[in-house]
User: Which sequence fits this backbone?
């Protein structure tokens, strides 16, 4: 019986903050951290260089987290995003290093586009495989994507024998290292992906269906939604976002490899959940995710400036997710009393 | 498996076994073994099987621990970080204070149990989903370890530890010596203990019960928190023990080498028939799951496939296995619905 | 006879709300007693207090066989022989029958499993109530009825003196209910009390001796079961008299909306033919497992028939998906509102919009905020859903209002045929009334309605014609105004 109607005895600041949702909570945490780091580091943290380096680092994890997020929203999970990104990066790298003729001219440009299209094709194929196995065979997403993850990585290793493919044409490298008006191109790409994904999720029929499926797939199916098709599309979308991450990653390193960025895999889940995505699906917004990413990046950059080990950063990220989730649980408990 | 003591139940039990996941897995493993035995001269040799057991002991030991957590309806992927911490702490102390076998196992085990209990507390008391907790703690344990250890290797291990265990030596016709080494010994003990825990103790049956229906377990007065402490603590203990087995085999401690293997272990356990939904999974199945992946990789090398390709096949096997399981489960449910 | 259990002045407050107010109740040893009341009347709170899961407010007394308690804890309650069989049975599907029965006795503590003791306990418990199940079988492989037997055996194994059954008949077939009731009679002979908590009273009244009625947390009274019937109980539970007239309009000369001919799906139903006319409400009743839901799903495109034809407005339909059915003008309200009818966690608005999302998209393929709001608000207004904000989660609504949300999402599709599968399960009597009203209004506007229910009065009073389904075939038809409720009941149970 949830008819708890105890009056608001103890409306602490915490619960009052809590009502604003994850974005408010994270903003306050961010504010507090900025204050602490600001005191410790002074203007160093807010220098143009520091901000720009943050803007260079954030997009990789950001795009990958976006790819994880769409799968999480639908009540699933996509463990194969990194492996997909690497396989796509290698595909693109192969085309770029083997087929791009000369250093300029029409064919030079056309082959670069071809390379990206090849990456997109591979990503679509992996997305379709994931989606089909999950939606039509009924395999749990964690297992299906674990399988495709291992398979994609295996394919990457087998094809390259673990070697790096490097040396790309300038326009590609520019995507990862260029700056337009002081803003890194990678950041622009990230923002350019966030906007349509946010619109897709919040305004399109497809987005509405994803949230509904994330909460209750069966009821959604009984309402006339072809949930299998939607699930299939979710994993294709997730794969396509992974290929975007692949492009940014390979451009930044000017190389591709079977095992780049693997440590990001579980961090993307952390970032999404920190940003208010329900790990069981149905809830979460792009705005929250962006907030979480900024928070993680500020911690990482500040620790870097303080000369802390990057591994300590990872530990703090882990602690942060437990802290914030605990806060949410606590809030719910207090909220229950209040109601 | 609840094999009853009385003889009358033997035939139905056999019939039930014939329909089980483990039976089909056993068939596949036997077919693999026979195939490889016929195709190569080297597979069914004592030398190869000995090496196979020794080199896969680490994954096997961890799989047994993870099985218990999955049966209880949870998931934990922080155990590789736990193992890294336990290994480092135990062997550092051993070097500083000249500790012996018993002490290092006690220390590694205790460190593991503490890490496991931390997971259990977060999961039960804060009601955060186990996958999120364990991703976070993975990062926390690992980050702190690298921060404090500086990521340094330990190569000069104590003499007795480097020598390991070498019991019941036996020389074959060619004069090659075999013996019961630390890896095989611990592997056998851990599987035996896990089997006893799950099948022969009341707590084991409670773990199955809790995994099968958590609400009912609570209503019947099961101590869910205590059970969670037990299962996560047990996995921690196992991770601690496994870490020493791995260090002995590698003859060194490398803090960064274990993290990243957690999904491989998960794949083996799931391949062995354990369900992520809880309540399902057997020690026999887990042994077969580990064996299948080990034999597959070993066999590919023996028949001349470059080891660069082995991961691709592992991925394929996982994908095919989980698809078949999901498909047959769905068909079984459909036929039940009609009857 | 001495009383096994006496409750004196039991109250329970949750915050400012009185869930129970000074309730007295007594159970004689070996009595079969019924506890009835609407959702929120305090039944489940009372059960939880008896089971020791919740504490009553100070001042109340619980007396078990002469021993007095201010409150119980679960261990005391079990030790005094009180066993609750919850609606979901609380069994462990992955364990064996024997383990499930003996779980309370032999699975506690840290020691080796005593398989012999477990099997002995299980056999003894099964012998006590004369059932025989394979003790090695896994519970997940059993039928619902057998699972219920396992749950009862578990109560036996725990030496139950009082077995409380929460909605025990909800998912059983008539035959299985009969077996259960015989079992209860057996328990009675052994001096074991049974307390039924139920809303389907007709069956239970056959074996119960006394009925206690709760309303709004207070006891209305104790009554002898012999002088009770559905209508009197409904009166006592709601405090209102509900009188329904049977319909007597003849629609057969009107426009035919749905025409089904010889529809067959082996294993589900066979050779079903029926017509539904504009404005007509056709009832379809039959026992659980008679194939009614499977048939309805075929009309809704989710269970393709093997042969026969479905025509809507004269057009022959070959439905492969429910989307096609919806686009043709067929709507289906599933029986299981909580898992199939609604996405409870999500907003009311999203639930109303879900059936027509693709139609709401503008030229860019997006749904504007204005459209979203106005369509959702229209649904809320048209069906008079009492919700402070359409963006609140559906789970914050009462059962009756939740069912209105289901109807709203189907109204949005402008259906020609509305199929209602047990639309009032778990809905209060007063809220039921509102739902019948909505359905009748729809019919008056020319929608054809197929009302599926196993509650005889529901179809008798609210359908213009009632079809009876048995083992997948239509076995009879009844016109309520030319018949009686008893006749219909006999026809169904024949």
Assistant:
């Amino acid at each position: 019986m949830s008819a708890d109607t105890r009056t608001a005895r103890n409306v602490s600041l915490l619960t009052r903050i809590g009502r604003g949702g994850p974005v408010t909570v994270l903003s306050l945490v961010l504010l507090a951290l900025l204050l602490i780091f600001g005191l410790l580091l002074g203007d160093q943290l807010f220098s143009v260089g520091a901000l720009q380096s943050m803007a260079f680092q954030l997009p990789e994890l950001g795009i990958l987290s976006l790819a994880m997020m769409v799968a999480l929203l639908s009540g699933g999970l996509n463990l194969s995003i990194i492996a997909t990104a690497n396989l796509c990066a290698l595909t693109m790298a192969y085309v770029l290093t083997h087929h791009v003729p000369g250093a300029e001219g029409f064919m030079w440009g056309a082959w670069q586009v071809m390379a990206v299209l090849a990456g997109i094709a591979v990503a679509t194929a992996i997305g379709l495989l994931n989606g089909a196995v999950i939606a039509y065979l009924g395999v749990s997403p964690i297992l299906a994507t674990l399988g495709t993850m291992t398979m994609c990585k295996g394919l990457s290793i087998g094809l390259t024998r673990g070697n790096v493919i490097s040396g790309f044409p300038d326009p590609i490298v520019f995507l990862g290292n260029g700056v337009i008006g002081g803003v890194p191109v990678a950041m622009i790409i990230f923002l350019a992906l966030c906007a349509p994904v946010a619109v897709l999720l919040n305004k399109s029929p497809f987005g509405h269906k994803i949230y509904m499926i994330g909460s209750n797939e069966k009821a959604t199916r009984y309402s006339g939604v072809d949930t299998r098709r939607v699930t299939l599309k979710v994993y294709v979308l997730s794969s396509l976002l992974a290929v975007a991450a692949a492009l940014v990653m390979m451009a930044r390193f000017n190389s591709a490899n079977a095992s780049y960025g693997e440590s990001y895999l579980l961090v993307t889940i952390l970032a999404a959940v920190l940003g208010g995505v329900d790990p069981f699906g149905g809830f979460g917004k792009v705005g929250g995710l962006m907030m979480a990413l900024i928070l993680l990046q500020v911690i990482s950059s500040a620790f870097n400036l303080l000369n802390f080990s990057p591994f300590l950063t990872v530990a703090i990220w882990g602690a942060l997710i437990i802290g914030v989730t605990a806060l949410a649980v606590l809030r719910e408990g207090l909220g229950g009393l209040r109601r | 498996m609840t094999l009853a003591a009385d003889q009358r139940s033997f035939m139905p039990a056999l019939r039930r076994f014939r329909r089980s996941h483990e039976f089909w897995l056993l068939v596949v493993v036997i077919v693999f073994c026979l195939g490889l035995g016929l195709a190569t001269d080297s597979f069914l040799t004592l030398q190869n099987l000995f090496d196979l057991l020794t080199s896969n002991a680490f994954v096997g030991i961890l799989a047994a621990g993870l099985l218990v957590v999955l049966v209880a309806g949870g998931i934990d992927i922080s155990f590789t970080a736990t193992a890294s911490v336990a290994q480092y702490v135990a062997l550092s102390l051993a070097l500083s204070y000249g500790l012996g076998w018993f002490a290092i196992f006690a220390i590694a085990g205790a460190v593991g149990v503490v890490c496991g209990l931390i997971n259990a507390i977060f999961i039960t008391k804060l009601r955060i989903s186990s996958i999120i907790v364990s991703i976070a703690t993975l990062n926390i344990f690992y980050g702190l370890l690298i921060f404090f250890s500086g990521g340094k290797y330990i190569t000069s291990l104590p003499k007795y530890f480097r020598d390991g265990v070498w019991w019941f030596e036996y020389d074959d016709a060619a004069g090659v010596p075999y013996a019961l080494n630390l890896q095989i010994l611990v592997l056998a003990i851990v599987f035996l203990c896990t089997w006893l825990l799950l099948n022969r103790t009341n707590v084991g049956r409670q773990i199955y019960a809790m995994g099968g229906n958590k609400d009912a377990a609570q209503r019947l007065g099961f101590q869910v928190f205590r059970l969670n402490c037990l299962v996560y603590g047990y996995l921690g203990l196992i991770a601690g023990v496994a870490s020493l087995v791995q260090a002995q085999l590698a003859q060194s401690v490398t803090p960064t080498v274990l993290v990243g293997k957690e999904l491989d272990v998960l794949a083996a356990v799931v391949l062995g028939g354990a369900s992520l939904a809880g309540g399902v999974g057997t020690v026999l199945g887990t042994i077969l799951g580990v064996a299948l992946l080990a034999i597959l990789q070993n066999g590919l090398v023996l028949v001349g496939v470059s080891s660069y390709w082995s991961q691709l096949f592992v991925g394929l096997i996982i994908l095919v296995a989980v698809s078949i399981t999901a498909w047959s489960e769905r068909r079984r449910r459909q036929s039940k619905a009609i009857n | 006879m001495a009383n096994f259990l006496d409750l004196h002045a039991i109250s329970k407050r949750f915050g400012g709300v009185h869930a129970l107010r000074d309730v007295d109740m007594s159970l004689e040893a070996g009595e079969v007693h019924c506890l009835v009341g609407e959702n929120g009347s305090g039944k489940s709170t009372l059960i939880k207090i008896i089971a020791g899961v919740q504490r009553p407010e100070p001042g109340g007394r619980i007396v078990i066989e002469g021993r007095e308690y201010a409150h119980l804890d679960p261990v005391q309650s079990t030790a005094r022989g009180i066993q609750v069989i919850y609606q979901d049975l609380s069994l462990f599907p992955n364990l064996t029958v024997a383990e499930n029965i003996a779980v309370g006795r032999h699975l506690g503590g840290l020691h080796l499993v005593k398989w012999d003791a477990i099997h002995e306990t299980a056999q003894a418990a099964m012998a006590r109530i004369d059932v025989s199940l394979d003790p090695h079988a896994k519970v997940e492989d059993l039928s619902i009825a057998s699972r219920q037997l396992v749950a009862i055996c578990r109560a036996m194994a725990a030496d139950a003196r009082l077995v409380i059954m929460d909605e025990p008949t909800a998912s059983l077939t008539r035959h299985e209910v009969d077996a259960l009731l015989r079992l209860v009679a057996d328990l009675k002979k052994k001096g074991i009390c049974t307390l039924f908590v139920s809303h389907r009273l007709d069956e239970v009244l056959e074996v119960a001796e006394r009925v206690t009625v709760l309303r709004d947390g207070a006891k209305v009274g104790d009554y002898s079961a012999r002088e009770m019937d559905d209508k009197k109980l409904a009166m006592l539970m709601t405090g209102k008299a509900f009188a329904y007239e049977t319909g007597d309009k003849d629609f057969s000369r009107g426009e035919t909306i749905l025409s089904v001919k010889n529809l067959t799906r082996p294993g589900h139903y066979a050779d079903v033919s029926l017509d539904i006319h504009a404005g007509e409400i056709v009832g379809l009743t039959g026992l659980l497992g008679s194939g009614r839901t499977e048939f309805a799903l075929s009309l809704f495109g989710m269970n393709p028939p093997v042969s026969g034809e479905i025509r809507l407005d004269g057009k022959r339909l070959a439905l492969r998906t429910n989307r096609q059915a919806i686009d043709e003008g067929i709507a289906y309200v599933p029986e299981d509102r909580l898992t199939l009818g609604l996405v409870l966690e999500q907003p009311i608005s999203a639930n109303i919009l879900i059936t027509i999302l693709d139609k709401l998209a503008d030229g860019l393929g997006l749904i504007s905020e204005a459209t979203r709001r106005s369509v959702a608000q229209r649904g809320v207004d048209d069906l008079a859903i009492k919700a402070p904000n359409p963006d609140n989660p559906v789970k914050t609504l009462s059962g009756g209002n939740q069912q209105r949300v289901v109807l709203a999402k189907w109204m949005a599709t402008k259906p020609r045929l509305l199929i209602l599968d047990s639309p009032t399960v778990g809905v209060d009597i007063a809220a039921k009334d509102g739902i019948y009203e909505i359905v009748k209004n729809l019919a008056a506007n020319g929608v054809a309605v197929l009302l599926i229910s196993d509650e005889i009065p529901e179809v008798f009073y609210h359908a213009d014609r009632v079809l009876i389904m048995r083992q997948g075939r239509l076995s009879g038809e009844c016109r309520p105004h030319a018949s009686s409720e008893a006749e219909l009941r006999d026809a169904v149970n024949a």
User: Anything to note?
Assistant: The interface with chain C takes residues 2, 4-5, 9, 12-13, 16, 199-206, 208-209, 211-213, 215-217, 219-221, 279-280, 338 of chain B (CB under 8 Å).
